[in-house]
């Protein structure tokens, strides 16, 4: 079954877009493509952290947020963009109902 993808962008995400001078539509498509690739790894009704690499003008960024798979949709919350290195092993999850997907 094809799930409808709903994406919400935080004020911080838009602020980061402006700060780094990134293209909104390219960043959005990058997130949607990444979630589509990882859809089978998502658990139903479980909020999970996502992050995906993004390259623009030869510079690397990390797009990050949360994703929740529902019966008929996938809800994506794009929260921030990082321009620094990122190591997923450094993340400490304090809420037990969140899983990290690469």
Distance between the terminal alpha carbons, to the nearest Å? 23 Å
Report the structural category: alpha/beta
Overall number of domains: 1
Strand-residue fraction? 35-45%
Mean pLDDT: 87
* Largest sheet properties: 5 strands, mixed
Cα shape? globular
Count of β-strands: 5
Low-confidence stretches: none
Q: In sequence order, what are the helices and strands, one letter per element?
A: EHHEEEE
* Arrangement of strands in the largest sheet: 1-4-3-2-5
Helical content, roughly? 10-25%
Radius of gyration, in angstroms, nearest whole number: 13 Å
DSSP helical segment count: 2
Q: What kind of oligomer do you see? A: single chain
Can you offer a commentary on this structure?
The protein has 102 residues and is an alpha/beta fold. The protein is 25% helix and 39% strand. It contains 2 helices and 5 strands; from the N terminus they run βααββββ. The chain has a 5-stranded mixed beta sheet with strand order 1-4-3-2-5. The longest helix is centred in the first third of the chain and has 15 residues, at 24-38. The chain is globular and about 35 Å long.
